[in-house]
Amino acid sequence: MRDRASFDVLVIGSGAAGLAAAVSAERAGALVALATKTTLQACNSAKAQGGIQAAFGEDDSPEIHAEDVMRSSHDTANPELVQLLTSEAPSAIHWLEELGVGFTRSNGGYRLARCGGATRKRLLQVGDRTGHAITKALRERFEAGSGTELARHALRELRSADSCLVASFETRDGSADIEADAVVLAAGGRCFAEAKTRGELSTNHPNATGEVTRIAIEAGVESRDLDALQYHPNGGAWPSTMQGYSIPETTRSYGAVLRNADGDEFTDSLGARDAVSAAIFAEVEKGKGVQTPDGRPAVWLDTTRIPAADAEISLPYMLRRYRAAGIDPLAEAIYTYPVLHYQNGGLVIDEHAETTLEGVFACGEIAGGTHGRNRMMGNSLLECAVFGRRAGEAAARRART
Ligand SMILES: Cc1cc2nc3c(=O)[nH]c(=O)nc-3n(C[C@H](O)[C@H](O)[C@H](O)COP(=O)(O)OP(=O)(O)OC[C@H]3O[C@@H](n4cnc5c(N)ncnc54)[C@H](O)[C@@H]3O)c2cc1C
Predict the structure, then answer these.
(1) What is d(CA 125, CA 185) in angstroms, rounded to the nearest whole number?
(2) Which residue's CA is the nearest one to ligand 1's atom 11?
(3) What are phi and psi of 106, to 5 degrees?
(4) Is-contact 103 49, C-beta < 8 A?
(5) Does ligand 1 come within 6 angstroms of the Cβ of 38?
(6) Could you give the CA distance from residue 348 to residue 361 in angstroms, rounded to a whole number?
(7) For the chain, what percentages of helix, strand and coil (3-state, to nearest 5) are there?
(8) What are the C-alpha distances in Å from 375 to residues 48, 117, 202, 264?
(9) On the CB side of 313, how many CA atoms lie within 13 Å of its CA?
(10) What pTM was estimated for this model as a whole?
(11) How far apart are the C-alpha atoms of 130 and 107, rounded to whole Å?
């Protein structure tokens, strides 16, 4: 007889991955609790703007998508996880649509953009608030179900006990222990905390502090590529209100290019993320960069090349924010510089998103392997949907046995 609150499946984290896992576990018949550090809405996922990849183009296929992922990762990704990611992408999109996500359409199909490192147009968007739309739909579905929401529950320890797992939390009232047959870790990455340590800017939500990765490792879970952190090539550098903002990569998909102080294009603006960031760092190092009015290093992102019609459909939020700050990106180039953005590595998982510790699953940014050491844009939200679903279903299965 257990004397603490007890669930079949306990999910930690309420970003896209945790929500997808919680919804899937509940659909599979499990008694689910979703614990999160602050509020259900607080996460990186909701900040994601650009979009989500899935091979829907006539000239595209999950195999070509997988090749792009492997090449962008410099062959460091786990090919089995990549194959699952790309082959289940179309069904993950249909699942999100069924939950209420309305992807932008044009000419009778999805509006697809080509993102950095991709050989085909494959990026689906919901305007430039894709993460907001996905998390809202998932959250509403979770809230409409029978799952228990545990807001203001910050995980502090995870341990195995007789035939179950015990999670200890810091709560508003002190502390709480919760038992579960299976635990899904979906607490995201650590780039907010890492940027603070380095004295740099980050695109991340303040809850992206990475302690759950450490807790999992202490509990015995294996990790990989944790040193591989990703810079978003296009952090906002000026005005000051846009510093740390991630200018959607779709600006470059729709024609924006990077220029140096002489106005010259110095790199393939649609290269892989690490290559584009490295090119910007090198250009500034060579003295070919520009300085923001407050003295920060930068280069130009020439957004004046984006057709107004594309910008209005796919970049309305970005336009609104810059225009509110007195800059019209369709009339003048904007300052940009790479900014700390994403934890490429994480906890080792298998094809069911199970970690090396039995009964403990991981999905989303906290997991490693799907992107190797360099993630392509648009594959993180996809990973949350594909492996969040897999984790939820597998955790529910485990709870039944
Ligand atoms: C500005 C921005 C733009 C982006 N744009 C895109 C894009 O266009 N396309 C794309 O694919 N990806 C994009 N990404 C990346 C992507 O959004 C994230 O990597 C992904 O959404 C991570 O989802 P997650 O569910 O794993 O983690 P998060 O969404 O970060 O959620 C983690 C959750 O865990 C909680 N948590 C943390 N610690 C604890 C704890 N100790 N106890 C309990 N709960 C805890 C947090 O509060 C949060 O609810 C973007 C990221 C940012 C920041």
Answers:
(1) 27
(2) 378
(3) -155, 150
(4) no
(5) yes
(6) 10
(7) 35, 25, 40
(8) 14, 10, 17, 27
(9) 15
(10) 0.96
(11) 20
38 CA: nearest ligand 1 atom: 47
Residue with tokens 């062959």: 75
CA of 373 to the centre of ligand 1 (A): 18
Q: Is the CB of 15 under 6 A from ligand 1?
A: yes
User: How far apart are alpha carbons 247 and 327 in whole angstroms?
Assistant: 14
> In the structure encoding, which two tokens stand for residue 352, read together?
């069911």
Burial group, residue 286, by CB count within 10 angstroms (0-12, 13-18, 19+): exposed
Domains of the chain: 5-190+344-400 (3.50.50.60), 230-340 (3.90.700.10)
Task: Take residue 151 and report the two structure tokens written for it.
Answer: 């807001």
Q: Is 244 in the pocket of ligand 1 (CB under 6 A)?
A: no
For the four alpha carbons of 84, 87, 88 and 92, in that order, the dihedral sign comes to positive
The H-assigned helical ranges of 4-156 are 16-27, 62-72, 79-87, 89-98, 130-144
Which pLDDT tens digit goes with each residue over 29-52?
999 999 999 999 999 999 998 899
pLDDT in tens, 88-140: 999 999 999 999 999 999 989 999 999 999 999 999 999 989 999 999 999 99
- Catalytic residue positions? 273
- Give the residue from 341, 244, 245, 252 showing the smallest Cα distance to 300: 252
Distance (Å, whole) CA 4 – CA 338: 47
Q: Is 370 helix (H, G, I), strand (E, B) or coil?
A: coil
